[in-house]
Design goal:
By secondary structure, the chain is mainly β. It has two domains: 2-85, no CATH class; 90-285, Jelly Rolls, CATH 2.60.120.260. The protein contains five helices and 16 strands. The longest helix is centred in the first third of the chain and has 14 residues, at 38-51. The protein starts with a helix and ends with a strand. The mean pLDDT is 87.
Length: 287
């Protein structure tokens, strides 16, 4: 998705962008059956206008950004450009766990250096995955039934958790996200997978907002490497009282198959002075 948006930004001719949650093909399925669907409707109007000389009802197709909120396929928002669509980002800093707690924090107050959190890479991950069932998971998301997890059940030796305080107002996440973290791994080709979760403290359940993997190429064994990489852009509403949880895992079968023969090794997540770890997120309260 970040690559698609970058490509869209560099196009100079008439262009449109449709943003929908779900696996590739899910949003198009009704159109293939002859039912209304935004991707096929937009495509037909585009081809009628540019190839046939008429867009059916005579109106030209709109050159803009059209989007849905995640898990609400009936929402339909229009913005002139990506810059109009994406909200400004705010920086949340990754900090160490407070005394007596297991999880780190995401705080706006200021960067915190000097902490280290170690996770064990086993080749199989934790059970938090982008899509437990590729097609079914995407369809369920589009129908407002995303897969849920219980973060308290996740072994903290296998993943690092960082959480915000409960949100005082319902808030929207819309646009680009970026994570910076410093990593030291004991094996060549180590991977980390970052997930941003919407967690409900009242139920103990959470669901994925966005995610991204990062694999360290070359031999960086035992060397601290600071990486900055984008997560998938999101269009999501977080309810009042919910928390954002950043989870840094080491494997997801959506991106690579399980490798059970891989010997376990340690990955250290750190925040050195000068390159402190952060999450940039377009998070804004809803009036």
């Amino acid at each position: 998705m970040p690559a698609v948006i970058d490509f869209h930004q560099h196009l100079t001719g008439p262009k449109g962008l449709l943003i929908q949650v779900g696996d590739h093909g899910n949003a198009e399925l009704p159109g293939l059956l002859g039912l209304p669907a935004k991707p096929t409707d937009m495509t037909y109007r585009w081809m009628d206008h540019h190839l046939g000389g008429s867009a059916g009802d005579g109106r030209p197709p709109k050159f803009d950004v059209r989007s849905e909120h995640m898990h609400d396929l009936f929402s339909d928002l229009r913005h002139p450009t990506w810059a109009d669509y994406a909200l400004p980002t705010k920086r949340l800093h990754l900090t160490d766990a407070p005394t007596g707690q297991n999880d780190g924090q995401l705080v706006p107050d200021g960067p915190q250096a000097g902490w280290t959190r170690s996770v064990k890479a086993t080749g199989t991950g934790t059970g938090i995955v982008v899509a437990p069932q590729l097609i079914q998971t995407g369809l369920a998301e589009r129908l407002g039934r995303p897969h849920t997890y219980t973060p308290a059940d996740i072994d903290r030796g296998l993943a690092a958790f960082f959480a915000t305080a409960p949100l005082e107002k319902a808030s929207r996440v819309r646009g680009d996200l970026e994570l910076r973290v410093t990593v030291s791994a004991q094996q060549v080709g180590a991977t980390i997978v970052a997930y941003l979760l919407d967690a409900d403290p009242a139920t103990g359940r959470a669901q994925i907002i966005t995610n991204a993997p990062y694999t360290f190429t070359g031999d960086r064994t035992g060397k601290a490497t600071t990486v900055t990489f984008p997560l998938q852009p999101a269009d999501y509403i977080v309810a009042r009282g919910h928390q954002l949880q950043l989870v840094i895992d080491t494997h997801d079968p959506f991106f690579a198959p399980d490798i059970t023969t891989t010997p376990a090794f340690t990955i250290d997540l750190t925040s050195p002075a000068g390159t402190e770890s952060y999450l940039d997120i377009p998070l804004h309260p809803i009036d």
